[in-house]
Every structure is written in structure tokens, then in C-alpha cells.
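Before going further, it is useful to explain how the protein records used in this thesis are read. An example of such a record is reproduced below.

***
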Amino acid sequence: MVFAWKSAGLTYNRYLAVAARAVRRSLKDGPRLAAERRGQMDLRFAKWENGKQGDLKNLADVNNQAIAAHAESK
């Protein structure tokens, strides 16, 4: 038996993210705002070279830039 999310080409994590976003959007205003704040992610990373930490970068920003660069190269 193939799961619907798998046959749609989604990973399980992506499926959960889509389902969670749908549930958050279906809530009334008060609980919806609180749930949306909990659903936001703020991940940062830094490259280390020669034992020194580089600049911290927001993962979402870097990911969006990579997607845009990939789209331009096509």
C-alpha cells in the first residue's frame, strides 16, 4: 500500500509541514496567531574555517537565494 503523500512525491516531513499549516490556518484568529508564531522557524548556521566561526546566516534566506540562483541558471 502506497501512502498518498508518498505517491504525491512528498517526504514525510514535508507532508507534516503542509498538514500543520492547514490546521493552523483553519483556527480562529486568537489561537491561529499563537499557533502560527509557534510554527515559525529561525535556523541559523555558520561555516567554521581554521578553528574560527564565520558569519551567522539565516537558513531560510540562504535557501531562498539558492533557489533563485538555480531558477536563473535554467
